[in-house]
Amino acid sequence: MLSNLPEVPTGFVGRGSELAHLADALARDRMVTLTGPGGVGKSRLALHAADRARHDGRTVAWADLWQLRDDRLLVPVIADALDFADHTAATPLDTLSAWVGDRDLVLVLDSCEGLLNGCRALVTHLLEACPRLTVLTTSRERLGLADEHHVTVEPLPVATDAVRLLCERAAAAGTPLNGPEGLVTAARLCHALEGVPLAIELAAGHLAHRDIDQIERVLRARLDLHGARGFGPPHHRVLRTAIGWSHELCEPAERLLWARLSVFRGAVDAGTVVAVCGGGPLAPEEAVRALEGLERKSVVKRDGERHRMLDTVREYGRMWLDELGESAEALDRHAQYFRDRVRAADAAWFGPGQIHAYRWIHAAHADLCAALDHLLDTRPKAALDLGGRLGFFWSCCGHLREATDYLEDALSQCKEPGPTRIRALWALGVTLVLRGEAGRAHGLADVCRQEAERWEDTDGILRSAYLLGLTHLLGGRPLIAAHQIDQAFARVGGGTPDTASAVLCRLARVFALTGQGFLDQARDEAESLRRHSLARGEWWTRSYADYQLAVIALFEDRARDAVVHARSMLEGKRRIGDSFGLALGLDVLAAALAAQGAGEPAVAAYATGETYWSAVGHPQRGTPELGPVRVRYERTARSLLGDDRYDQVALESVVRGPDQVLGEILGQSAQGS
């Protein structure tokens, strides 16, 4: 498990005593909560404290909870932050606890305020089950646990750090505050804004077009007015006034975009912003200019090529979206955009755009969940279509829990028969197989096949045959699996080699031939499938064809060929981000290296494979013929090194971490090939 933190931004001002206090607290207490009003800097303080813990040698994981609207995705989001792709049917919290185990880990849960009950239960469970876990949370109020170490995050000191922050942001905006008069005015402004960092940054964002005296006069007058009206606690009043003032100073196009941007849950690129938020007065060029303006004014934060809003700013935008009467339309546009993107990714799956599609779907996860939530409320059949197309992608991206839950919800809400439902049934079956629920998956595959035959749905017939074949292969029945595949091809007249469903069936048939011992035929079909995938620029099928060619080469004592194919499989699975596939590939590569006599690389591969198996929540799996191969060549590796050296190399590999070791192993394999 590697430390997983967002990029730590430069320009962090002050907070030296708070950071020192947090370092002591995280070393001593197992539950630490930072509280304070919106915009006071809780998240940034937590990020720097976590970064310091990482530099002190602790493993750190960061989970953004601001993207969640309820507890439904709480455990999956935290599992994702912990690099845990749960492939089990067990209780999610139990499997997550088992994955954390006794690791020395700092888990940061950012923005818990909307999920206090869920966070309270989850943290209680994890702390009881994981003896070396430390949890750091940020929230607008305490979780209320018995041993919670509570730290109130105060605004910056107005006479020192607040002025320094304003001056640094002003200089970055190209309008440095020079001379005593400018500094005096800056001090008065920071005093009026009570040192609230977000309010100061919003004020600084307007210095490019207004001088600081003007900003100070206007904001002070507004704050005096709101104070006279009893406009809430001082810090809340300051931030709300600063946000409202900043909103008023935005151009009309910027204000409209601010409102429309509030529909996004995650960070998005400019193209997505234009597609979802454009329309009416926001032509594409105008939307881009408005986005750049909001970034300059600190309303929008930039993470590389992607943009996102802070919670407090987004809440204000959502309020204005409601006032404009555009909320329903904006949510519809958002959901339709992400549905269209997934449909395009699905159509391009067997082609050169496959890797990009997997990476985009992983990056857009929060907004894809938002689209499914909205469609389940408004258009269940569209949700069924989106879930059915997402399920197979998510099965490789570590999101089996979400895929299963959303598909089950959509299937229960939309019972209309037809190809859309058939595809969703199939996708649910695939997720169940990967979670080890082959019996349920087999039942779904039968229903899927019957429905597909009734509708004469060629794609559904082939997909159901693939799913049935998969359940039989994992159950050690390769002959029946091959029969199911051959029957399906006969039913559809041979199928079309270039369709994704036909390719899946061809791959399953290769597995079945290997399982029956027909190695020559299996090798010929696997090589044909690999060539076809290579010509199409596609990696998922190619990687599993390589996997089969590696296994066949091991059966035929061709260790060198097995290493080449195992390495190629791992390269494909690494590009896709498929932990389950990486675990399988590392087992085969380890066996091939041991067969070559490369004992230490083999042990490193075995140990790293065990890490990946642990990261999907269960021990080694795969089709039954792989089991004896693992046992045989693990013994070979141990005999090559001896027990002591074997254990030492395995331990060193675990300490270095799976990503580093995987890169080293692939480099060694490339040299050996």
Annotate the secondary structure layout:
Layout (H helix, E strand, L loop, with lengths): L15 H13 L2 E5 L6 H14 L3 E6 L9 H8 L10 H9 L4 E6 L5 H14 L3 E7 L9 E4 L8 H12 L6 H14 L4 H8 L7 H17 L5 H16 L2 H10 L6 E2 H8 L6 H13 L4 E3 L2 E3 L2 H14 L2 H21 L6 H10 L1 H14 L1 H17 L3 H14 L5 H16 L3 H18 L2 H17 L3 H14 L8 H17 L2 H18 L3 H16 L3 H18 L2 H18 L2 H17 L10 H16 L1 H14 L1 H15 L1
Parallel strand pairs: 1-4, 1-5, 2-3, 3-4
Antiparallel strand pairs: 6-8, 7-8
Helix pairs in contact: 1-2, 4-5, 6-7, 6-8, 7-9, 8-10, 9-10, 11-13, 11-14, 12-13, 12-15, 15-17, 15-18, 17-18, 18-19, 18-20, 19-20, 20-21, 20-22, 21-22, 22-23, 22-24, 23-24, 24-25, 24-26, 25-26, 26-27, 26-28, 27-28, 27-32, 28-29, 28-30, 29-30, 29-31, 29-32, 30-31
How helix-rich are the residues, as a percent range? Answer: 55-70%
End-to-end distance? 29 Å
According to CATH, what is the topology of the domain at 16-152? Rossmann fold
Average pLDDT = 88
User: Which class of the domain at 16-152 in CATH terms?
Assistant: Alpha Beta
Strand content: 5-15%
- Which value, in Å, is the CA radius of gyration? 28 Å
Q: Briefly note the structural class of the backbone.
A: mainly alpha
CATH superfamily of the domain at 16-152: P-loop containing nucleotide triphosphate hydrolases
Largest sheet: 5 strands, parallel
Q: Assign an overall shape.
A: globular
Total count of strands: 8
Q: Are there runs of 5+ residues with pLDDT below 50, and where? A: 227-232, 669-673
Q: Strands of the largest sheet, in order across it? A: 2-3-4-1-5
CATH architecture of the domain at 16-152: 3-Layer(aba) Sandwich
Total helix count?
32
